[in-house]
Design goal:
The chain has 386 residues and is an alpha/beta fold. It has 15 helices and 12 strands. The strands form 2 sheets. Strands 5-2-1-6-7-8-11-12 form an 8-stranded mixed sheet, with helices on both faces. It has a 4-stranded mixed sheet with strand order 4-3-10-9, covered by helices on one side. Residues 227-342 form the Ketopantoate reductase C-terminal domain.
Amino acid sequence: MIPHALRVAVLGAGAIGRLQAAAIAYAMPAPSVALLRRPGTPATSLCIQVMDATAAATTTTTAATTTSLPSRPADAAMGDGAPHIVVVTTKAFDVTRAVHDLLVSRTAGQASTSPATAAQRAPTAVVLLCNGALTARDRLLAAPWWPRAHAHVLLGLTTHGARLPSSADSTACLPVMHTGVGETLVGMPPATHPCYPAMACWRDRMLATTTPVRGVWRFVAAAAATQACYRKLALNAVINPLAAALQVPNGALATAAPASAVATLVSETAHAVWTAMEASLDAATTASGEMMAAVRPFASPADLAEAARALCALTAANWNSMAVDVQRGGPTELDALYGGLLDPPRSIEAGQGTAAVDPVDLVAARAHLRSLSGLVTAACELRRTA
């Protein structure tokens, strides 16, 4: 059971973070929700203004608050101790640092947070809603400080579209444009898991509340969430780097013949790697105990390519996050998307198992991914020097 008021922190104040925080704030009492921003940001109470770009309506909530990390704990909005649930919406390359700052650095100087005290409370549920969640999870679990975080990672995803307005008065309100209504899917731990009571409480509140922030919340078994994340990874690996390298909205990839050919090539590459992984690893589970069926979310390269084209047509006007990152000349999430494809498990490299893909083909396929990776990297450099 939850001994005190459930505390939920949304880590990352970008467009998706603001959107999620606004939705959660409607379902939770005001002191129980915090939107956590970058280190050095003043700790203050701000509203989140959600502007529905499709319905020309404006919704405002004042229930979500902000604070800074890691100089202070999660402020008065979190009460005493760590949050029960942390919803991570940062960029994939920021996840490890941000979670460390919140769950490890924040408590390092607090005398009241002894190892014995931490052991007495349930671990914090860290719900990853960012792109590249699978890679972000692996990096968290591999971090040498992770055992001290007293936390458990849960996978999730969101299909909402959101962006920040070009200009806004951030001292009075945190605005966000809701550009595409989607769903938020969260993987639930089993009922015997120590994080389950907090997650079940959060789930029940979200499902019982109708918020002005449009969209669907789904809480599913962990295995289903893992498979959904692999599916999203596959689609993002096809669409995002290609749109970023060409600097086009998603719709251009659904109609341009050259882009379609590249999408097919990337699909074949991803499928080759997944097939090799499926043959090289244990047939029942991966190293983290997940069903291997989740590794290959599409039956064939053609299925993946067609699904990518269909998604591009559905989101034709959208500039995906990697394309926007390149426009701004900032870092991208390329490593998080391609990490599992460019650096598959060592068992494949060692030739263990009987892969259905010729090793020469696998090497060539990965070379194609590295070429596309180079295009995106070059586009970023051009933006930085322009």
